[in-house]
Amino acid sequence: MAFSGKKTVGQRLLFYYRKSAAIILFLLLWELAPRVGLADRMFIPPLSEIIVTGAQMFISGNLLLHIKVSLRRALLGFIIATIAALPLGFLLGGWFKRFEEYLDPLFKVMAQINPFSVFPVFILLFGIGETAKIAIILWVCVWPVLFGTILGVKSIDQTLVKVALAMGTTKIALFWKVVLPGAAPAIFGGLKQGAGIAFFMLIAAEMIGATAGLGFLILQSQVNFQIRRLFVGVVTIAILGLVITWLLNFIEKRVITWREESVLH
Prior knowledge:
By secondary structure, the chain is mostly helical. The protein has one domain (61-264): MetI-like (MetI-like fold, Orthogonal Bundle), CATH 1.10.3720.10. It has helices at 9-36, 47-60, 62-95, 97-112, 115-126, 130-154, 158-166, 171-205, 214-223, 227-264. Helix 5 crosses helix 6 and helix 6 runs antiparallel to helix 8.
């Protein structure tokens, strides 16, 4: 039975405990397993040692440098992909549906291509510099955003559109008050998927021809057998991914509130 009204402090603590219990248990096992001999400490250091190493790298500025470089690459690729995919998705999903039906098989085939297999092509086209790294991130991000936008626009209740047009709503107002709010959930689903893929592909991109970045940090740590630094890179990427996902969820909640207000008015 659902609780009515606001939750009590005890209910909130129980809720957060249930949400975080598995994570806490995992972190405890990570800390204890190497110390009691369940895992080889040489290959899996205790979590506390990784935190200490990460703090030292952060204070020295080394870790912050890698974070800045990786964030710039990931965000540039993701933002450019979003700028390209959103308008195209709205056009194909709403105004050029027949054209979208012809292009859909091609888009799906291109989206299914393993990005690692086309990475050499991007190197041949753009070299091993920044352009190739950003381009491959753009490639993997554009498809989930595009498909999410098309799906969101096509799922809009056409009755709302017809009623709005019958009431003399302009095309700009129709887009702002009906199309965009109605497509928002699917769009944010594509954005979150694209953001996750961006960081996944970033690691591979930074392992080739890079001199900085979290992927470069992981590769260099592996080559030099600096296991703690390697885990620092892995954990940092995981944290950045969680932060960006949280930001997108935060923005989505604000947009959904705006969406409900737009529908009501």
